[in-house]
Design a protein that fits this description.
Blueprint: E1 3-11, E2 14-22, E3 26-30, H1 37-45, E4 52-57, E5 60-64, E6 69-70, E7 78-81, H2 93-99, H3 106-119, H4 135-147, E8 153-157, H5 165-181, E9 186-190, H6 193-199, E10 202-207, E11 210-215, H7 217-220, H8 232-240
Parallel strand pairs: 3-9, 3-10, 7-8, 8-9
Antiparallel strand pairs: 1-2, 1-4, 4-5, 5-6, 10-11
Helix pairs in contact: 2-4
Length: 244
């Protein structure tokens, strides 16, 4: 189910002009802060209105400037995990997850809630508030909310940026598990070289509002024999190359 993106948007003196396509893979939008990565996700999700372009998923058009097509976020079948997770502090874990289940019948809502709570190891946390659970548990609640509707596309806006290294590594493993279960395109925004190299099937490099390169991690970072990213040798290698 290919995702095709061609977008133009000007906001407060900043211009975004990008065009790329990915298949059923985990694609990382990689680049410095302020290069338009998060704006791209918001435009894909329908949270911002583009100036021009086309966004389609598997042939279904979400937006087409020339044909005057624009689907609402609710019509796009997209799961979205925000950088700050955006969990409602006054809602329990269960209520936060069910907030993403709009449009699902009551019978299916309860079944899917039970299934996803078990799948993401959230049993026993149903009635806990976000302030009462750990950082990793909050991450899994946010992913459960994004996936309970079984979307056709998952957008991740730097969801791991505030985590320490150990928890971030744990969540990387979790994301790989999610990918093995939900065979849908995933777009992950990051400016972290470690995440880009270790997680991506494809890397889309942004700079100053345009996509300047695209390829596998090995192609983008110009190395065919990089060490395994889970080993200490990888960190030594990347430090030697000046990435850390």
């Amino acid at each position: 189910m290919p995702l095709s993106v061609k977008l133009r948007k000007k906001v407060n003196g900043f211009s975004l002009d990008v065009a790329w396509e990915v298949g059923n893979e985990l694609a990382v939008i990689f680049g410095p802060s302020g290069s338009g990565k998060s704006m791209t996700l918001q435009l894909i999700a329908g949270l911002m209105y583009p100036d021009d372009g086309v966004v389609s998923l598997g042939g279904k058009i979400f937006y087409d400037g020339k044909q005057k097509i624009w689907l609402t976020p609710q019509q796009r079948s997209i799961g979205y995990v925000f950088q700050d997770l955006a969990l409602f502090p006054h809602m329990t874990a269960e209520q936060n997850i069910l907030y993403g289940a709009a449009g699902i019948s009551p019978q299916d809502r309860e079944r899917r809630l039970r299934d996803i709570m078990n799948l993401f190891h959230l049993e026993g946390l149903e009635h806990k508030l976000p302030c009462e659970i750990s950082g990793g548990q909050k991450q899994r609640v946010a992913f459960a909310r994004a996936l309970i509707r079984q979307p056709d596309l998952l957008l991740l806006d730097e969801p791991f940026s505030a985590l320490d290294h150990q928890l971030r590594t744990e969540m990387h493993d979790f994301l790989r598990d999610v990918r093995s279960i939900y065979r849908i395109p995933v777009i992950l925004v990051t400016h972290d070289i470690f995440e880009a190299y270790c997680l991506a099937d494809k890397v889309i490099v942004y700079a100053d509002g345009i996509n300047v390169d695209m390829g596998t991690p090995q192609e983008i970072f110009n190395e065919q024999n990089m060490p395994d990213c889970e080993t200490p040798l990888f960190f030594s290698y990347m430090m030697h190359k000046g990435f850390f």
